Amino acid sequence: MRDIGRCRYEENSPQREMLLMRLADLGVRLITRVRFNQITKKGILITQDGGSEFQDADSIVLAVTTAPNQDLMQALEREGISAHAVGDCMEPRGVKEAIDEGLRVALAL
Predict the structure, then answer these.
(1) Which of helix, strand or coil describes residue 74?
(2) How far apart, in whole angstroms, are the C-alpha atoms of residue 98 and residue 104?
(3) What is the C-alpha end-to-end distance of the chain, expressed in Å?
């Protein structure tokens, strides 16, 4: 696995390489590690490396990944409320893993 910003992919995946080549052939520009501020009919206003800029675009596809967010878990703990972390709260994974974790916690209660 390799990280690009916060995106993960199989580094030696032939499917990935074929997809990236096809997208490049179609003129698709991939921009990673940005925060979008505004989407208009003419493009998108992004913030990257501390500066903002407008990118012309006729189509925009937002592909975001999940990152563990334990803010709610920590807030509950501060209030003395018992909680159990499952799924993406612990680590980004698939639905199957989240369901399995939830079932294990439920059975242990």
Answers:
(1) helix
(2) 10
(3) 35
pLDDT at 53: 93
- Following DSSP, what letter does each residue of 20-32 receive, concatenated? HHHHHHTT-----
Rounded to whole angstroms, the Cα distance separating 86 from 68 reads: 10
Please tell me the distance from the alpha carbon of residue 82 to that of residue 76, in angstroms, as a whole number. 7
Q: Is the confidence at residue 15, as pLDDT, over 80?
A: no
Judgement on whether residues 47 and 77 belong to the same structural domain of the protein: no
Q: Residue 63's closest CA among 101, 19, 98, 99?
A: 19
| Predicted confidence (pLDDT) per residue in 38-97, tens digit | 888 888 899 988 899 999 988 887 766 667 778 888 888 888 888 888 887 788 777 788
Task: Give the span between the Cα atoms of 79 and 76, in whole angstroms.
Answer: 5
Q: Is residue 63 part of a domain?
A: no
- Name the strand (E) or helix (H) holding 5: none
pTM of the prediction?
0.46
Task: Identify residue 72 by its one-letter amino acid code.
Answer: L
Q: Is there a domain that residue 48 lies in?
A: yes
